[in-house]
Design a protein that fits this description.
The protein is mainly alpha-helical and 378 residues long. 72% of the residues lie in helices and 1% in strands. The protein has one domain. The longest helix has 34 residues. The protein is globular and about 70 Å long. About 2% of the residues have low confidence. One of its GO terms (cellular component) is plasma membrane.
């Protein structure tokens, strides 16, 4: 029986089911999920007392002020879990320590800037400048795209390859950071999409022995997303704000670049490109639509032309909208894993785990909301 379980575990990419490496990844995920899950109620209560809340506007769907400090709890859960994993040192990550630190520093900058923007408002130009800084931070620490490694594209001279790769890296990081932020408009959408994306990328990265650092970071990010989603599924008790959305977008973009250190960028970026096709396509259609309407600054003029807004208008239900977009993200993730060559058994297990986790947090939130309603009536 034990041998059969161990054999199955190896078939889904787990070399040693009871080894320190796998258990550390699992502990990282559970730490992030539990810490975020339990930390958010306290953050919510404090946010209400000090007035950290989003007011209703043309982009938001809430009818009354809603605490917007969820991003701080997500970041705290993510960092705590990474610190725990780092202390355990289950795997050798010395070769990429500087890159991991660069990612964490950049994520911190995104969260702080997003939080300040949530509370006081920052100009689009300043936010873009900070995002550019975050992208440059990755580049100077060795995390960048090599254009000549991208399949199906012509090889260019080295004098052109480097600046072109830098430009693509900036576009990738800044673009995905904004894409995830723009997707945040309906309860549960970004939390669920980020959870699905992080888990799919984790499984894909686990197929390669030198991507252990990426696996740890993605486990922490996935756990934080799941813990947050417990409180954000409709009816939401708190939202992540720009702090949380940009944290997810930036970190997912940055961690995907860790795969370019020893493997070709074609293999390491194709999967995240497919996995995160939903926010990318949403942002693309919104930007093109606004430009077509003569809006010169498409990122600085919020409206309700996003996919989640269109779906909400069609379904009339926030929960159904979130579920549909989770399904789309999951389908994109499966396609990405197939392209990556992830074993079929691993794909099936990943889908089942994702569905179970999403059902569990949605069920817990709905049950809690019903209990809150009954308490109000009494």
């Amino acid at each position: 029986m034990f041998d059969a379980v161990a054999t199955f575990a190896r078939s889904v990419g787990i070399a040693d089911l009871f080894g320190r490496g796998f258990l550390s990844v699992l502990l990282t995920f559970l730490t992030a999920a539990a810490f975020t899950w339990r930390f958010i109620p306290g953050v919510r209560d404090f946010a209400i007392r000090v007035g950290w809340a989003d007011l209703p506007n043309e982009r938001r769907l809430n009818k009354e002020p809603l605490p917007n400090a969820g991003g701080l709890a997500i970041f705290a859960g993510f960092i705590v879990s990474v610190v725990v994993a780092w202390a355990l040192r289950p795997i050798i990550i010395q070769d990429v320590q500087i890159q991991v630190l660069a990612i964490l520093l950049g994520a911190t900058i995104m969260v702080l800037t997003g939080f300040i923007d949530d509370q006081f408002g920052l100009s689009p130009v300043f936010r873009l400048a900070v995002q550019l800084l975050g992208a440059v931070l990755l580049i100077v620490n060795g995390l960048h795209i090599d254009f000549n490694s991208i399949p199906f594209l012509p090889t260019v001279p080295e004098a052109v390859n480097q600046p072109l790769g830098i430009a693509l890296t900036i576009l990738w990081v800044v673009g995905l950071t904004n894409a995830m932020n723009l997707l945040d408009g309906v309860d549960g959408v970004v939390g669920g999409v980020s959870f699905v994306s992080a888990v799919v990328l984790l499984v894909s990265a686990a197929q390669f022995p030198d991507r252990a650092a990426a696996v740890i970071l993605l486990a922490g990010l996935a756990g934080a997303a799941l813990g947050y989603l417990r409180h954000n599924y409709n009816p939401s008790r708190i939202i992540m704000g720009d702090a949380g959305a940009t944290l997810f977008g930036y970190t997912l973009a940055a961690v995907s670049l860790l795969g370019t250190l020893k493997f070709s960028v074609g293999a390491s970026l194709l999967v995240p490109l497919l996995v995160m096709a939903l926010p990318i396509l949403d942002t693309t259609q919104v930007v093109l639509g606004r430009l077509a309407r003569g809006i010169r600054n498409p990122l600085g003029h919020p409206d309700k032309t996003h996919l989640h807004h269109r779906l909400l208008a069609a379904t009339g239900k926030a929960r159904r909208t979130a579920q549909i977009l989770w399904a789309v993200a999951l389908i994109c993730g499966v396609i990405g894993m197939v392209v990556q060559g992830v074993p079929g058994a691993a794909i099936v297990v990943t889908v089942l785990v994702l569905l179970l986790c999403l059902w569990f947090v949605a069920y817990r939130r709905v049950r809690a909301a019903e209990q809150e309603k009954r308490a109000e009536l009494n």
